[in-house]
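hey can u check if this looks right to u? its 188 residues, i copy pasted from the old doc so theres a chance i mangled smth
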Amino acid sequence: MYLLRLFVFAVISEVPYQLALGGYGSELHFRASNIFFTLLVGALCCVIVRFFREKKKGWIAVFPVAVLVLFAEIYGLNYGAFGVLAIVLPYCFFENRRNRLLALAGVMVFFYAVTAHFNGFSYPLQWMTSSYALMRMIFEVAGALAAVLILAFYGGEQGRKKGKYLFYVFYPAHLLLLFVLRSVIPVP
């Protein structure tokens, strides 16, 4: 049911996402770019891992998960492969809280220190040549690690069911609001 819910809201959110962050009118296309598609692929990877673990053949999950991670990167899902890895790697360490947080922290640090600042093999990482880029990278890594620190305080209790769909509806609604604001307020 959760996968279906993610899929439905991914489809619903795509047009508002394209309107808010894509081009105007003729440039609108359906590309599966919004974050719900990344969450859907990540959750699907977790289902695959759980399925093979229950059959005592967890190592087999590496192959379909690798295909989905590669798909996320090639197809250009939001945050690409790292978005999916940030979901599935902590899940792989579900039994060990410390390792789960370390896996997430590792993905975040690698993403913000390397991938987000990579300009190709001919050029060094941006932060190696610019003090501004170095400071930006440090702030990005610190922000990501602060989020991991906040997650470290999560006690594992499920939240209240009341208002559950509010967060699902908020995402496309706020994107539509951003589109309206972008349409009304002239950009210099």
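The helical segments are 2-21, 35-54, 62-75, 80-92, 97-113, 131-152, 164-184.
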